[in-house]
Amino acid sequence: MELSSQPKLIRVLVGQKLLHLMRSSVKEFIVFVGRTVAKRTPPGQRQSVQHEEYKVHSYNRNGLVALGFMDDHYPVRSAFSLLNQVLDEYQKNFGEAWRTAQTDNAQPWSYLNEALAKFQDPAEADKLLKIQRELDETKIILHKTIDSVLARGEKLDSLVEKSSDLSAASQSPGGQKLA
User: Fold this and answer.
1) To 10 degrees, the CA torsion angle through 74, 94, 46, 126?
2) For residue 49, is pLDDT > 60?
3) What number does CATH give the domain 3-120?
4) Which of 17, 41, 117, 166 could pair with 60 in a Cys bridge, judged by C-beta atoms 3.0 to 4.6 Å apart?
């Protein structure tokens, strides 16, 4: 494939900590892998490609492709949510300008630096993940509270018997003990 028909990289952004540590050969490899994955992601499709301890996530929206190089532990759902947000923001700022790009890194775009910092936490990219984390934290607190009540020697049955909030029928559903 000739160079002019290859995908143009609008912006190559790597975490600032990594950028200083990377040799030019590593940067070139990232560009190569990114361009290869972008070429092989059909329009309207998403895909993830495993490379050692990293995954390259790719989302092609009508020819405009967003790529994310993430460690293996970054949730896939969050990765694609992030890529979707980046594509939305790009199209809001630049429209179809990418279609006429002749070179890589043709447009400065500060949003990517902000996004890189913000989305280090996958919950920032995926609101459902954020809600799930909050529910998990609440569940842990609830279990600790129940455990501490039971640790004081109080059985759930004795608490039910002492309760004035429950009718006799509610205290013993089906004649069964609760604990």
Assistant:
1) 40
2) yes
3) 3.30.450.50
4) 41
The Cα–Cα gap between 64 and 6 comes to 13
**Residue 11 to residues 34, 111, 144, 152, Cα–Cα distance (Å):** 11, 11, 48, 60
166 CB neighbour count, 10 Å cutoff: 14
| Higher pLDDT among residues 59 and 169, named by residue | 59
Which pair of structure tokens corresponds to residue 131? 């809600």
Please check whether residue 129 is in contact with residue 77, taking contact to mean a CB–CB distance below 8 angstroms. Answer: yes
Report the amino acid identity of residue 114: E
How far is it, in rounded angstroms, from Cα 10 to Cα 5? 14
Question: What is the domain partition of the chain in residue ranges?
Answer: 3-120, 131-166
Instruction: Quote the pTM value.
Output: 0.63
143 phi and psi, to 5 degrees? -65, -40
Which strands sit side by side in the sheet containing 64-71, from one edge to the other?
46-51, 54-61, 64-71
Instruction: State the amino acid at position 168 in one-letter form.
Output: A
pLDDT at 42: 93
